[in-house]
Amino acid sequence: MLDKIKSKIVKMFKLGFCIRWVICSYFSLQRKYDWIIYPLAMKSLNRICKRNIGLAYLMELSFRDFVEKNKISDELRKSAESFYNELKCRQMYSQIKSAEELLKELRAECKHQKTFEGNYSWRVGNIQLADICEYCGSLVRYK
Ligand SMILES: [Zn+2]
User: Is the pTM of this model over 0.85?
Assistant: First the structure.
């Protein structure tokens, strides 16, 4: 009799452990999935917002309402803000890089037909009088 009860308790414990393991792995997988999907979702949201700024404001109102109803700790708020700033910095560096590539292409095509006399800095602390292209801003020749 005691053995039967003991084996039932062990079975229930094993079943409980299995259920807990399944639930935990489901949420762990879901968390990983969310982190993979987040950048893709942000790209879609940016595209949607660029097409219609009214939708962006609507989403802002919805998120603001959600945040007000669900209290966020200061630590989580600061963490989210620093993550957002990091993403913004990455985006700006990417824009700078693509703008530099475009400028390089434009300078390669420019005929430098109109110049002005200006100070050209070819190294930190060194300035030299030079002819600079008015259209693309590149150095044409030193004076
Ligand atoms: Zn030029």
Answer: no
Q: Evaluate the CA torsion angle 26, 31, 32, 34 in order and state its sign.
A: positive
DSSP code at position 72: -
Coil vs helix vs strand at 123: strand
Token pair, residue 38, equals 């987040």
Residues with C-beta atoms within 5 A of ion ligand 1: 110, 112, 133, 135-136
Domain boundaries, the chain: 1-55, 111-143
What averages of pLDDT result for each successive group of 10 residues across the chain (143 residues)?
80 78 80 86 90 93 93 91 92 95 94 93 88 93 91
- Locus of tokens 């949201």: 45
109 C-alpha to ligand 1 centroid (Å): 8
67 CA → ligand 1 middle, Å = 51
